[in-house]
Every structure is written in C-alpha cells, then in structure tokens.
Design a protein that fits this description.
Two copies of one chain form a homodimer.
Chain A (H helix, E strand, L loop, with lengths): L1 E6 L23 E2 L5 E2 L1 H11 L4 E8 L3 H8 L4 E5 L5 H14 L8 E6 L2 E3 L1 H15 L5 E6 L10 E9 L2 E8 L4 H9 L3 E10 H11 L6 H6 L9 H4 L7 E6 L3 E3 L3 H7 L4 E2 L2 E3 L7 E4 L5 E4 L4 E6 L2 E6 L10 H4 L5 E4 L2 E10 L5 E9 L4 E6 L3 E9 L1 E6 L2 E6 L3 E4 L5 E5 L3 E9 L8 E2 L5
Parallel strand pairs in A: 1-4, 1-6, 4-5, 8-12, 14-16, 15-17, 16-18
Antiparallel strand pairs in A: 2-3, 6-11, 7-13, 8-11, 9-10, 9-11, 10-12, 18-19, 20-21, 21-22, 22-29, 23-28, 23-30, 24-27, 24-29, 25-26, 25-28
Helix pairs in contact in A: 3-6
C-alpha cells in the first residue's frame, strides 16, 4: 500500500483577506465540485487521489492551527500529523515518515509519495504519481521527482535536468538546481530542464536512514516530536532532492497551476461571483468573492478581483493581486472569523473604553453534539445571549438547558461550558482589560 | 433681513453605500474644513453664507428622517422646517415660506433666497446671491434666477435665455426652458443660454399670493402643514420659474459642481483616502473612503472609487460611479448605521432561527446628557450589555445607575429608557419574531 503524505502548509498571505493563519489557502471552499456545491483545494486533491484508484493511505501533515479546519473538511477518518511548531517541508515530512514507521506499522520498504495540496491539476497528474510509485517499487531509483514541462522562464521553481529514459516514461536525473535567476532559467529551459513540482516518491527507509545518520534516532515518535526543533528548518528540496545520488523523474505536461494568488484562483472559479454581489453593465473579466452579508456593487472594472471578508477587503487588478503579500503584516490584527471543530465564530465589534476596559462582541455558532471546552477566564467577564437553538450550559458545575432568549452573565474566574443539542447560535459580549484568545483556562470535564 | 431657505432634500442614491434615507449626501462629512477637520456639504454652505457677510436668517427645509442629522451637524440654533412627507421642491418651499410668514414674523415684503445645499461653490457664488437679493429689493423683477455659464451640452439642467442688462450684472430673462435633449442644448448654448442653478430670489408675498390664488389659504401654519399633500407634487422650476412674467438673472461663472456622484465628490476630497486604507504601489487617481473598521488593500487600480460602510461596498471606475443609482433599490435592505440626535447605532449582526425567531445585534452610543425615549416593544425582548460609560436606566418606572459590565434583560412590554451621564456604549441584542424599528411605543416621561 502506497503511503501518500499531503503537505498542508502555507499561510496563504497572497489570498488575504479570506485566508489567514488558521484558514490557509488550501481550505478556501471556492472550487466547483463534480457532485455540485463547492470544495477546497484540499478536498479536491483527496477526491482526485480516490478517483485515481491508487491503492494508498493518506496522511496530512499540518500545523496545530489547522487541526480544526482539517477535521471540518475531511472528517475524523483521515490520518493527521501535527507539527509542534511551524517549520519547513523537510522536518514536516520527517515527522510524517516517523509517524508511518512508528505509529502506523509501516516498514522501511513501504513506498511514500509526498505531494503539496495547492496545485490545481487534472487526472493525468495522478497517473504520473502512480508511475513514480511504481518506479520506486521497481528500484529504478531511490528518489523520484515529478517534472513539469516549463511554460515560461521563471525564478520560482527548482529545475531538473535529465539525460535519457531508465524505463517507460521514467527519465534519469543528472542534476537538480534550486531556484535560479530568470536569466539562468532561459538557458535551463533551452537545455530541456523541467520544473520541480514538489512531488516526490521514495521508500520510507530512504528518509529514515538519512535522518538517523545525520540528526536523531527515529525509534520513539513522542521523543522525535519533542525534539522537532533539532531538525534543520530547511526545505525537502535543499536537504534531500538536491543531494540525491540516485534520482529519476516522471514528466507531466497536463494542467498544473499553483493556486496561490487571487489571479489564478479566479481563473479556475466556476462563477464570476460568490456571495452578495451586484454588477453594473460595464464590468469585464472581474471576479468577486463576498463573504460579508452586506452587498458589493461593482461597475466599470476590467480584469479586477475583489475579495471581502470579516478580516478586510481586497480590491486589485488581477495582475497586481499578489502584491498584497508584502502588506499582510500591516493588515492583520487578529482573526475576525475562525472555523473550529465545534463550529464558527465571527467578531462583530470591538470597543475601547476611557478606563482601560475593552469589549469584544462575537457571534458564535455551535454544531449540534459539539461543545466548547469547560473553561474560565482571568481577565474578562462574558455575557451570552442565546438567539437560536437549544444547548446544555454548565456554570460552576451546575447544568441547565438554554434556548433563544436566555441570557447568561459569566463573571471572571467562573467556570463555564456549553454543548449544543440543536444548532446553537449566541451573541457573546466580552468585557475586560485584556481580551485575547489566550486568556482561557481549560478544565477537565466529560459531557 | 434676507431670509435664506436651504433645501436639504435628496436621497443621495448615487452616493450609496455611505448615504441613505437619513444620511443624505449633504450630510457626508468628507470635505476639508478651513479650521481643520472635515465638514459636510450642508456645514460648508452655512459656513460660506456666514463668511459672505450677507445679512440673513437661515431656514433649512428638510424631511422628518433628516431631523436628527440636522441637529447633530448644525446644533439647535438653526430654524428647521420639516415636511410631513417627502415631496418635490415647490411644496417644500411653500411650507418654509409659510413658516416665515406665520411663525417667524416676516412680512410679504421680505426678500427670500432659496438655494440647494449640494453645489460645491466658491465665495463668488454668494456675491451673486447678494446681487440677486439686492435686485429683488430694488424691484428689478419679481423672480431672480442665478444662471451658470454652461461648460458642456447637458440634458440635466433647465436653460435660461436673456436679452440685455436691466441693471449692473442683472440680465432680463426672456424665456426659461426645463431640461431639453442634449441635441437641443447644443443649440441653446449657441444662443447664449445659461444653466438654471436652482437658486432663486423673490419677495415672500410673490409665492404666498400664488399659493393663495391657486391652492390654499396661507393663514394657519398647522393647517397648511396638515393639508401639505394638497399642494402639487411638482418642482419649483415647473410651477414658478417657467411661468414667471417678470424675471431676471444674475450670471455666475465661478466654481459650481453638483456633488452628487462619487466621481465629483472624490475630485474635491482633500485626501485620496479616508479611513483604514492601504495602497500597493500601482494605483493611480484612486480614491477610497472606508467607514468600516477592517482594512481595505488596493493595488493596480486607475481612476477608481471605493466606498465601504455598514450598508455595503461600492467598487467602480469613476466614470461609471453614478450607475449605482439604478441598483440601489436591490442593494438597500434596512439602514445598518444611523446618526440620531441622542447618538449613533450600528447593526452588527442579524440571525434567523428555525422557529421564526430572529435576532438583531447593535452597538449603540449615547452622547452624555442625551437619552433614548422611554418606550416598550410588543414583538421583541432586548438584552443590553453595557461596555463603556455610566448611565441612568429606567425600567418599569424604577431607576438605577448602569455601567460597564451591567447586563439588563428587557422583556416584551417592559417599559425602559436610558440616559447617558458620561459617553455610554452598550451592545443590544434584540430577539423576537418581528424586528423592525417601528415596533416601538414611546411613553411620556421627563428625565
């Protein structure tokens, strides 16, 4: 059974304001789904793997902030390996490989395929992946790359050089060069080099042996995870791909787009708009995604992209949409919307009083059967006004039923928890001197 | 003493989303003020009248929805005449004239100047107004127009034809034609016609006599107001200006712009942006007004206007910014922000429950010393969470002090009122079957 490791990294700064630390670009639900409705990049790639009939298990390598999004989009049945801290692809892949070896009963002989989840591809891509896995299985080489036929000079990719076929559609790799200058890339392309797609295949033991020789023993997963920061913070390309002695490549020249900017994302959106949008008659090739409830009216725009959500509003020519990345640090304050395992919250309002007191008002939605943890706060009181649904409230170890119209005033240090019986919506007003998500003491309790 | 009647009409649909029924375009505080800060069109025109040293009293003719905005922007010292219902300029001017005659002790000999408050003009405009008033005073003609030298063929204006000077800079009017076709307007301009500015001067008796002859007696203001709907719903231009037998015109060719579209408003804004806005490096001649708290990022735009507020978001080429007018009825649901005499409110959130129950969450701000009326609701309960300031709450005829952290749960039919001692902010959650501003029973009480 092939082990597929999906890399769910990336902060998605280029897709501000709709992506943020927790909701990376691969979670944005803007693609059309063959069964109707919309799906995210992550959901799409997993659907495509299943449709390819590759015999495989899937592991998603992600960071802690993404955990709730992953469970929401993929359900509980998927194997998720969470990095203890955000690091580059090499340590992330090592951690997933260790999980396969130490927790999932895989052997060093098992074939592993690593793939990023952000390229937008067609079925041929997964055929190439099956060929890569087959080539590792047949011992054609230690490390298999997928090479993309370049369409333009670019300094954004590593380049792979080959010199002949080792087996059917598997080329011998002579050299791998990380991102060159655009000028150099022209030369590389003239010599027939391929772009590195970031898809790799190898036997589990290949990586485990390198880690053991160079860094740490891989015999205890918890220990490896606790020593995660000792692994070099480096990309898999630099640490492994550039140094491979025995490498081969399967070329792929079908659809392959990095859906990392609004420009490219809009090009694969099935509709011009999502959300409450009204066009005048003089707009051309303009895409609008509106996650706010208020309307957007747009006229006289050509080749533009507009994206509006609780975190902010982007208005850009498609050609300049990636410049937002350089400004995101100034734009981002705190997330104004998050999807959690239990449901969602949206920040509605913030005030600052003359006396150093602040308020933060949220709309919270709990999915039926889900709960927010039993907890207390040191620095704030909270007022919950229930506006829809039925739930079980626990307040200082006493339980009661709450429904629309009920108001609960939770004082500082007062223990409180809530579980939804039916879909449950309430308005929370926090009042205190220091209103941060971190002011939370989680307490043990079983619902 | 000249009596100036300022017409504060207009719904300002072309300036959606920042203007609405209550906050018409003349209230938008986007112009620079010589003393620093920003002022509205209305504040600007009143400042300019005062600077012109015209000896005059000012009356503002407005509709009921605008009353609180007027008091906020102008204070209590200004004479305001409120129409009982929204009608055209002729009935509105008649009502103000009747107020001057019957309530303010003016005589039929008093000179009246009527002017709209939306043109953006320079000091010369007010010199022309003084000449108009002087010409009426000197009995040069019954009705004085201000004529604007046309700058382009246009079907948006009435045209005034003249044939010679009656006195210094006062021309004899031979003909007045309401809005022609653009083709006709070319001919009119070739013949030396002027645009009608909408500024008129006449003696109070001139209008009163016409009304008495044709429509109703003007001897009791309350009665006239109650019979307001009997006056024809027609513009002053059609009813009076087109039919005047003795008319003259003072020409004006200084700055004169109808600030009725985002395109023109942006051209007189002192800065490119208002509010939380970040530009990339590739924007040209793009203006952004952001009344939301979240940031707008903009790049790659040329000659564009972006306006964002609680009611919605407009993104348009400047040239097409007035097309929004045709779409406003689809875009407007309920006002999401209003300035009232007592302060402001902003709608933060709305939910609809499965059981026909709805919720509406607001942030309300009361100015110190101001109160919201003692009232009750038939169809909703309200939860007030105080987040800043100190106030006096009256609940079922009992009074108490409220401050940050206090929570008040007001049941259906429960009498409640609130007065701010210091600037007071609270979050209101309404829950009920029918959440409309109209569900309010106002009760007598003195604070």
């Amino acid at each position: 059974m092939v082990q597929v490791i999906l890399l769910s990294g990336g902060s998605g700064k280029r897709l501000w304001p709709l992506s943020n630390g927790a909701r990376s670009k691969q979670f944005l639900p803007f693609l059309s789904c063959p069964t109707g409705g919309r799906e995210s990049m992550l959901q799409r790639v997993i659907r495509q793997i299943k449709e390819s009939d590759m015999k495989c298990d899937i592991t998603v390598a992600a960071n802690d902030q993404q955990r709730d999004m992953l469970i929401n989009q993929l359900g509980d049945g998927i194997n998720v390996v969470l990095e203890p801290s955000r690091r580059h692809t090499f340590p992330a892949i090592v951690l997933s490989c260790a999980d396969l070896l130490l927790n999932k009963g895989c052997s060093k002989d098992n074939v592993v395929v690593v793939l990023p989840c952000d390229p937008y591809t067609d079925a041929g891509y997964f055929e190439a992946i099956k060929q890569m896995a087959q080539a590792v299985e047949s011992n054609v080489a230690d490390l298999l790359y997928m090479g993309i036929k370049p369409t333009e000079p670019s300094d954004k990719f590593g380049y792979i050089f080959t010199d002949g076929e080792l087996s059917d559609n598997v080329l011998n790799v002579t050299n791998f060069t990380e991102k060159p200058s655009v000028k150099e890339s022209v030369e590389f392309i003239a010599k027939g080099a391929y772009w590195n797609s970031g898809v790799f295949a190898f036997r589990l033991g290949y990586i485990i042996d390198i880690v053991e020789q160079k860094y740490v023993h891989v015999n205890n997963f918890a220990e490896l995870r606790s020593r995660y920061s000792e692994l070099p913070n480096i990309s898999f390309d630099y640490e492994i791909a550039e140094r491979a002695q025995s490498a081969a490549m399967v070329p792929f020249d079908g659809q392959w787009q990095d859906v990392g900017t609004w420009n490219i994302l809009s090009s694969i959106m099935p509709d011009r708009t999502i959300g409450n949008v009204h066009f005048g008659s003089q707009c051309r090739n303009t895409h609008i995604i509106n996650e706010l409830s208020v309307p957007i009216y747009c006229d006289g725009m050509t080749d533009a992209i507009i994206a509006a959500g609780p975190d902010g509003i982007l208005v850009s020519a498609k050609a300049t949409s990636d410049t937002v990345k350089q400004h995101v640090d100034q734009l981002v304050d705190r997330p104004m919307y998050e999807e959690r395992r239990w449901g969602t919250y949206r920040v509605l309002d913030r005030t600052s009083g003359a006396d150093g007191m602040h308020s933060l008002t949220k709309n919270l939605f709990l999915k039926p059967g889900h709960n927010i943890s039993y907890q207390l706060h040191h620095h704030r009181q909270e007022v919950w006004t229930f506006v829809d649904g039925i739930g079980r409230l626990r307040l200082d170890d006493e339980e009661r039923i709450v429904r629309a119209g009920d108001v609960i005033h939770i004082q500082r240090e007062q223990k409180h928890g809530l579980k939804a019986i039916t879909p449950l919506t309430f308005i929370e007003v926090q009042i205190g001197t220091d209103l941060v998500e971190e002011d939370i003491v989680r307490l043990e309790m079983n619902w």
